[in-house]
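Bug #77: duplicate submission created two jobs. Keeping one. Sequence:
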Amino acid sequence: MDFSTWMLGALIRGTAFGTPLLWGALGEIYAERAGVVNLGVEGMMILGALGAFATAQVTGSPVLGLVVAGAIGGAAALLHAIVSIGLRANQYVSGLALTMFGLGLAGVLGRGWEGVPLERSLSEFALAPVGVALAIVLWAVLYHTRWGIILRTTGESPAAADAMGVNVILVRYLAVLFGGILAGVAGGFLSVAYRPSWTEGMTGGVGWIVIALAIFASWDPLRAVVAALLFGTLFHLSFLLQRWIPPEPLQMLPFVFTILVLAVTARRGTRAGQAPEALGLPYIRGGG
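Kept job's structure:
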């Protein structure tokens, strides 16, 4: 096998793994554009993965499984929104608690599903073109519609958005809910398409890569498409290279690269590469 064929195969496989990364990152981009950090992506994804697998196994419909996964992810995100937006608790602590809760709950509820093969699964490329189309739509909405202006203003200057008559709290709730739905679908994709099975902890840190990917893409939906393909290909290469290199350091490769990406991104000097101004800050009307 020549190098070009080898790389093409890696890119194709990278597209498959990059699909859940893209879906999750798109949701996180919109949540953070509204000013809310959600570190609970891993928890939402694992709950979505379990919900999708169980639904698909019982009903025989992996598509319905993805719908249920989205609903579960949205419900988990709503919990984060209530705590971090409604109660104004620390967004980072709330997100971390959601991840721990999701991993623990999925581990308990999923014990009866481990080792059970999924009878009907989706193609691992089924959501790839849909994800790209969604990224294009979300980019257009973000930069070329009034809704996009409202979302961006809410994340940059919620007080200014409030002065314009925008319900900042509602916008943030909807953005976080939307992000949770996409994270749930991303997790469901793992269990009904990419690896049609259920295993405790099967997300394996993918949620953290999703968060880093949103930052690496500078909170831009179109850049997220390229970033997802890059990360997906890198993840697959870590398996291919195990023929010549011990697996332990290779398994760390995607996460090491994630850390490097965050470090490089943090040093960007241009405003376009910086986080939304009010990201992570609770909004109190009349208080900024």
